[in-house]
Write a structure and sequence with these properties.
382 residues; alpha+beta; 434 Repressor (Amino-terminal Domain); Arc Repressor Mutant, subunit A; 4 domains; 18 helices; 4 strands; globular
Length: 382
């Protein structure tokens, strides 16, 4: 694009960036420090030029690199699959998610790291799911469990295996109530999963497994078939079956049930103890036991509707919330950012932006993470 045309298109890029980040013009103007929204409006209409400082502030607020305002072509953004209980505006959260993936991908590229997620793509196709989708989803969960070597308590290992073995990019954000998370697969960015950090730990485990199904079957179901995340479409139901099979392997669950129950009787407290042991919700245990023909659907519906059971579950789990605290950024992302800074691949300013800290905190942050200068002295040839 010629310089003159780039300038002419700049105001259109500014409008697009704001709208894609989910800000109204009034809200954006206030956050950018304009006294009146008309000031931003004149920039967006192209009747007033934007200065460098204003453009920098816009790039920060809208979660965009400065180059996006001047690129010859506006690339279409990836479209994550969202899961939520009702229609809600998730544009700001989506931009945060995609910006995180862009930064993460850049760190990987700077260090020459390859992606590995293709190793677990499903060998099944549409016809397999069309014939008996629920059976296939259950089997696929068992297959992936074995392939990832998740052990008897999958929930404890899943996050680490996905982040470090398969190099998934997993972000935890405090999402709106009713929004569980999202997933996306894109050639440039790799695989991304977003999880609601406000949810209970056992709910986060299940959501992670649920989103993994969508990653594994990314090229099987269309976005239209999966839906906008507010309805239990067939692929969404398959994802729930897959998550149960992955997190609650039949053999390990039956063995644990035999050990915990007495006189071959299943008690309500046994269900809660199993849920605590496997790191999942009591609902997940109950419906898995229905699937394994240890309980009937009627029995489970009655238990779930019992308020006393719910209160007992909350009481017995009360101390577990603190044991599963999570941070916004994954440890691998933090480590890659530290490596890139120590190896001179990014500036201190870029490092601070990646980790959302002040530049003055960089040295203390590096020391806390164990990335001191002496740790980067050469000791041998690899």
């Amino acid at each position: 694009m010629k310089p003159k045309k780039m300038v002419e298109a700049l105001h259109q890029r500014i409008v697009s960036a704001r709208e894609s980040a989910g800000f109204s013009i009034t809200e954006a103007a206030q956050k950018l420090g304009f006294k009146h929204y008309q000031s931003l409006s004149t920039i967006e209409k192209g009747t007033r030029k934007v200065n460098a400082n204003e453009l920098i502030e816009m790039s920060r607020l809208y979660g965009r690199g400065l180059d996006c305002f001047f690129e010859p072509e506006v690339l279409r953004e990836p479209s994550p699959l969202w899961r939520k209980i009702e229609k809600s505006n998730i544009q700001k959260e989506q931009r945060q998610f995609l910006l995180f993936l862009e930064k993460y991908s850049n760190l990987e590229n700077l260090l020459g790291l390859k992606r590995r997620w293709t190793e677990i793509r499903s060998s099944y196709d549409r016809d397999d799911f069309r014939n008996d989708g629920f059976v296939v989803a259950d089997k696929l969960g068992a297959d992936i469990h074995k392939k990832l070597d998740l052990g008897s308590r999958s929930a404890c290992n899943l996050l680490n295996v996905l982040e470090n073995n398969l190099r998934f990019k997993i972000l935890h954000l405090p999402l709106k109530d009713g929004v569980s998370g999202a997933s996306v697969v894109e050639d440039t960015l790799g695989v991304g999963i977003l999880v609601n950090m406000k949810d209970a730990p056992w709910r986060r485990h299940y959501d992670l497994a649920h989103e993994l199904f969508h990653i594994v079957t990314w090229n099987i179901f269309s976005p239209e078939e999966i839906g906008d995340g507010t309805k239990k479409t067939k692929p969404e139901q398959y994802a729930d079956i897959f998550a149960s099979s992955l997190l609650l392997p039949a053999g390990h669950l039956i063995e644990a049930l035999k050990e915990i129950s007495t006189n071959n009787e299943i008690k309500k407290v046994d269900i809660i103890e199993l849920a605590k042991d496997f790191g999942v919700s009591t609902d997940a245990i109950l419906w898995r036991l229905v699937n394994l023909k240890k309980l009937t659907r009627t029995q489970v519906q009655k238990i779930i509707a019992d308020p006393e059971f719910h209160d007992l579950d909350c009481t017995l789990r009360r101390g577990l919330y603190g044991e599963y605290k999570t941070s916004k950024f994954p440890a691998r992302y933090i480590s890659l950012a530290c490596r890139c800074l120590m190896e001179g691949k990014i500036s201190r300013g870029t490092f601070a932006e990646c980790l959302e800290i002040d530049r003055g905190e960089v040295d203390d942050y590096l020391a806390e993470m164990g990335f001191a200068e002496q740790n980067y002295e050469k000791i041998a040839v690899a």
